[in-house]
Structure formats: structure tokens, C-alpha cells
Amino acid sequence: AAPAVFAAVDIGASSGRVMLGRITLQGGVQLETVHRFPNGVVEIDGGLRWNFDALFAEVLEGLRTAATVAAGQGETVAGIGIDTWAVDYGLVDASGNLAAQPFSYRDGRSSDAVEPVHRTLDPERLYATTGLQFLQFNTIYQLATEEGLDGVQALLIPDLIAFLLTGARRTEATNASTTGLFDAVAGEWATEFFTALGLPDGLFPPLIQPGEAYGTLLPAIAGRLGLPSATPVVAVGSHDTASAVAAVPAAADDDGGFAYISSGTWSLVGLELKHPVLTAASREANFTNERGVDGTIRYLRNMGGLWLLSECQRTWAAEGFRPELSTLLAAAAALPGGGPQINADDPSFIAPDNMPERIRAAVRSAGGVLTDDPAAITRCIMDSLAAGYARTLADAERLADRSVDVVHVVGGGSQNALLCQLTANATRRPVIAGPVEATALGNVLVQARAAGAVAGGLADLRAIVAAGSSLTRYEPADLPVTTSRK
Ligand code: LFR
Q1: Atom number, ligand 1, closest to the C-alpha of residue 87
Q2: Which residues line ligand 1 (CB under 6 A)?
Q3: pLDDT, tens digit, for every residue of 420-452?
Q4: How far apart are CA 114 and CA 193, in angstroms?
Q5: How far is the centre of ligand 1, averaged over its atoms, from the C-alpha of 336 (Å)?
Q6: SS (H, E, C) 436-468
Q7: Alpha-carbon span 115 to 210, nearest angstrom
Q8: Active site residues
Q9: CA pair distance 39, 239, nearest whole angstrom
């Protein structure tokens, strides 16, 4: 038989990609990017939305390229897996039409819905069942703004893509756990919340677990892609963070003793647990119990992330200042530590536009001073993120009664040496940085396991990632960070 390769569709808030993943003879995963495309929120019909039609066209384009590349190397595309950011959904009618382009969680509409939802279901009750961190954009609040949900179904973004590829309507469990309507202990929909909020019972399609197949390609789609219609679309950890955590290259003997930071647009900082922590202290610290691959619990906080910097870069670029990221970070690293910090989690940073001024205003209102020098603003963001990571890690250890001896940083931020070193310093723990493509690796490995190309539990999948990645270790230091640290 032709060697198997797996196609991973991975779409983040700022870009998407289609990759081919091969299990190598050396026992690692080799990733090949076959298509890349930009993403971002757009103003459509008076709201901040995702241009889903354009994204889906890019997905098809990427899968068509994947099919061509695989065929050219005598390989079979043995599966397609999809992951994206969480919480957002498209509404689909009975005949399968998408009513409108899906809203982005960055749209402000859901913040007005928080109070009415909490009048019906108070935060204590919500947390005791869902264990979900309060974020104003959780699906439950977004849905509370919708009118006329009868006769439509809500499909989370990866599920919506899978539906258009296969015709099957399902809700993947790791992503379902971010809706605020999912029971963290039972691993099922919290049906009593649907009733309490007047949401239709069947608003979301039935759950599907990572490793199960949604179905095979619709014939018309298969034809357009140049793939056999028997090609399965396999559920992975369709919440990108679930896929990323599955591919954290923790050592098997570090069972539970590691923390992770999935660092990209957001920073997801926490631990992997077997059971949710639903205590009042955990709710007050705003920790989430999201579902991971293989029924694990991703006990973490969603914190501000590199969105702060990418938004600054967008503003500076519009003003004609477009340094390379590495240049900007080097200039930030050359500045002394101990400068002003912000609370990177402040909801006032969720919306786009004019980020440098918003950051300076936050420093000012805390009584500090931050100049408009991009290097100083960049340094402020990095110092603030690292300090926030350290606080969150200490909270996680306390709340889950665990102790951590190493911090893994995966995703885009793992390539940011300044952030990694500051994180090691602030957490007083070694940081192991990489792989940058953890999300795509987690996506490929869950598919590969479902196809029998690899075997074992999460520890085994992680060993495969570790074997195939070059990782950078940062030791905690009291010394100021300089660019010559290598
Ligand atoms: C990261 C992420 C986070 C989620 C945020 C919004 O890409 O999926 O886990 O909190 O995006 O969906």
C-alpha cells in the first residue's frame, strides 16, 4: 500500500495553514506546509466577524494542494483533521445553509449578555458544572444575543468545516467544553442549562470524540479536491489548544509534573489533570477546566498573549514603522528590566485597533510612565506576559495541589527568546521551548493513532513529538536578558 500521510487544517486568529504530516521511520512526525493564508476579524454587517466563506475556500485550496503533493510522492492522504480557535460558531439551517458569516469572539455584543445570563444561572452554579473560566465571549453569552434559534443548529468553526466536507453534523468534545454549556465531570452537554436559557435542545449536534471520524468526503468535494471519496475526516482535538497540549513534548516520567504555555494570540497557561477542579477558589482565580484529548482536563487560564504585540505592530505599520519582529525584540531585550507592566488579561485589550495607546493608557492609569517608543512598549508587553505566567503557574500549583518542575512553551511564542527567558526568570523554572507547530503535530498524531500508524496514550504521542523536535532550554537567571544569551 502507498505510505500514509495525514492532512492537518489548522486555522488561528491571524493565519491558517494546511500541512501534511508523515510518520517517519525514525519515529518522529515530519510536517510539510502546503498552503498558508491570512486570517483576521473583519467588519461585516455591523459586527466583527470571520470571513468564513473565504476561509473555507482556502481550506479547499490547501487540501487540493495537499492531494497533489501527496500523489506526486506516491502517498495516500489517509485522513483530514481540523482545528481552530474555540467558542465561535456558525448557524446552519435545515438545508445546511450558513445564515451569516460567524461572529468573532472579539465582537463586543456578548458582553451585554453576561448579566442577563447570570440572572438566570449564577456564576457559582455555572462553574460548579462547567468548570469554565469566565470570559465575556464564551459561547453561552454569544448565544444569548441570538434571536430565532429555532430550526437552526450551531456548528463550532472546525465542526462547520467538517460538515461542509462530509455532510455530517457533530460537535467535537474538546471544543464543546469551551461553550459554557458542557458538563466537565460527565463529559456531556449540560442540558439543564439549555432549558434554563431557553436554548433549543438540539442546538448543537451530538458529540464526537477525538479519534472518531465525522465521515468521509462528500463526492462533490472529493472530486474538487482530487481525493478518493472514502477519505475520512477525523475529529482531532479540534480546539487548537487541545491539539497543542496533546503535543507538548513532556517526558513520560514527568507525569503531571509539567506546566505548559501554549503561546500565540492568547497564552494558555496551566496543567494537565485527570479530574476537574471545581472549587470556589478555582472559580475566583478564574481557572478553566477544558477537555483535552483522551478525556484529560486542561486546567489552565486563558491569558493575554501575543495579540497585544501583533496589534501594536499593525498600528505601527500603518504609521510607516515596520521593523522585523526580531529587530523589535532585540531592542526590547536591550532595555533594562523592572519597567512598567500591564494586566495583559484586561478585557479592554480584546477589541482590535490602536493597541499602543491603550497599553500606555493602562500604564498611566496605574500611575506609571510608558513612552511611545516601540521597543519600550514591546518590553512592557513581554515583562507583563512573563509576570502573568508566573502568577498563573503559582495559582495552578496551589489550586490543583501539584508541583511543577518544568515549563513547556509551545506555539509561536516558543520562538520568542526574550519571552522564554523572562518566563524562566519569572517562574524560577527551566523553560523548554518548542515545537512551534505543536497544534498541527497534535492534530496529525491523533489522526495517525486513529489510523493505526502510531499507538499508545498521550505520553507515547508526546515521546514522538520530543523525538522529532529540536527544543531550546532556558534556565532561570537573575541576570538581565541580553540578545547575546546563546
Ligand atoms: C487559542 C484559543 C484559546 C481560546 C481562544 C478563543 O487559539 O483557542 O484557547 O480561549 O482562542 O477561542
Answers
A1: 12
A2: 12, 85-87, 105, 239-241, 264-266, 268, 302
A3: 999 999 999 999 999 999 999 999 999 999 999
A4: 14
A5: 32
A6: CCHHHHHHHHHHHHHCCCCCCCHHHHHHHHHHH
A7: 34
A8: 240
A9: 17
